[in-house]
Amino acid sequence: MGIFSHRIASLLTKHGKEAVMTPDLLALTGCDVKHTDAYDTDQLGTFTREIPRHGTQLDAARKKALMGMKLLNTDLGIANEGAFVGDPYTGMLPWNNEVVMLIDQLHQIEIIGFSGAPAQSASGYFSHWEELEAFAETALFPSHHLVIKPTDEHHPESIKGIYDLSALQEAFQWAIAQSSTGVAFVENDLRAFANPTRMENIHKATVDLANKMNSACPQCQTPGYWVKDIQRGLPCNACGLPTEQAIAKIWGCLKCTHQETEGMKVLQFADPSKCSYCNP
Q: At what angle do helices 18-29 and 196-213 cross, to 10 degrees?
C-alpha cells in the first residue's frame, strides 16, 4: 500500500473520533492506528468557551498529534481539530472545517486532510420551556446533544451532553434558577461524539488524508503529493479579460521542487456573470 503500511500511528482523542478515523486509515493506507485518551484534550480549548484555544486550528492539531506520539512512543501521529465559522459563500450559515493531520517523524513530513461542510451549530436564549422544546427539534435533538448555561454563553457553569428530554427539562430549570436574567442559553454540543453531523465531516477529512497519504511524488516518491495551488484566469466570453475562474490545478511535492500543471476540464470561456469587468 505504501510507506505507511503496517506502521503504528497514535491518535489522541477523548471524544470517540477513533470510530470514524481508524477503520478507513487501516483499510486505505494499511496504517495501524492506536487510540489513547491519556491526556485531556479539552485543556487545549473548548467549544463552550471555558478554555480558549491558543494558536491556529493547525497548531492545535499538531499539539495533539505530538502528545499522542509521546504517550504511545510512536514516530507517526494523527490528530483532528475542528472549527466552526460562517459559511464560505455568504458567511451567514454555520459551517464546520475539520483538519486531520498526520506527522511522520521518520520522513519529516506533515500531511493534512481537510473537509468543510454545513454544520449543525444552533443556539438561542430561552425563558420558557415551550420555546426551548421547539428549538430542540430544530437543533436535531436528541441525536445531536445540547449544552445549557445560565444567563448567556459566557457563564462559567454549564451542563453538557444533554441527550434526552427529561434531562433537558431538568437542566433548563437549573439554568433558569441560576440565571441573573431569568434566561438560559442553549446550543448544540459541538464535541464529536455529541454531534453526528460533525463526526461525518471528520470522517470525510480522514478519507482526504488517506488519499493524500497514498499519493506519492513522481520525482522523489514522498507521500502527500497533492494540489497546492489553483491557476485562475479563464477569459470572459464577452470582453476577453481574465476572470477568477480556474483553468488549472498545480500539483506539488512536500519535499522536492517537483510540480505539475493539470488543465481543468472547463469551458473555453467564462460566463460574463463571473467577470468583474462585465459584472462588477
A: 20
In Å, how far are 104, 126, 168, 228, 258 from 159, measured between CA atoms? 38, 15, 9, 42, 52
Please state, as a whole number, how many other Cβ atoms lie within 10 Å of the Cβ of residue 14.
16
For 131-175, the pLDDT digits (tens) are 999 999 999 999 999 999 999 999 999 999 999 999 999 999 999
Mean pLDDT for 42-52 is 93
The CATH label, of 3.30.1490.20, 3.40.30.10, 3.20.20.140, 3.40.50.300, for the domain at 123-188 is 3.30.1490.20
Nearest Cα to Cα of residue 36 among 2, 59, 69:
69
Q: List residues bridging with 86 in a β-sheet.
A: 94
Domain range annotation of the chain:
8-120+196-214, 123-188, 227-274
Predicted TM-score (pTM) of this structure: 0.92
Supply the angle between the helices 165-178 and 129-138 in degrees, to the nearest 10: 130
Task: Give 123's contacts (C-beta < 8 A, 6+ positions apart).
Answer: 153, 185, 186, 187, 188
The residues pairing with 84 across neighbouring beta strands, listed in sequence order, are 96
CB 156: neighbour CB atoms within 10 A? 9
SS3 165: helix
